[in-house]
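Dear support,

I submitted the protein below through the web form. The confirmation email said the job was done, but the results page showed an empty box. After a refresh the structure appeared. I'm attaching both so you can tell me whether what I see now is the final result or a partial one.
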Amino acid sequence: MVGTALRHYHGNAYTLVCYCLMPNHVHLVVSLPDEAPPLLKTLQHLKGYTAQQANQLLGRTGQFWQRETYDHLIRSPEEMTRIIAYVVNNPVKAGLAANW
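What the results page shows now:
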């Protein structure tokens, strides 16, 4: 459900480069087109929708995601490569997968 929501905004609010769903957080790498809405607004929509859906699926209520969001501007192709490697290897590092 979260992956579907992330892919929903691809081509509109952002170009989805990669993402990784972890048990307690999500990593997302996107490229923003010039006419894109502010990333903060898009993330608020994503977090609100997915929190509501997840709570419904899990039969619970209340806060689902942490309030804060960490974002980082990628400034070079080398940094993009490093960050993508970090994102896709996050489950490996956490012992959740043998490889990405």
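Response: this is the final, complete result; the empty box was a page-load delay. Residues 2-73 form one domain.
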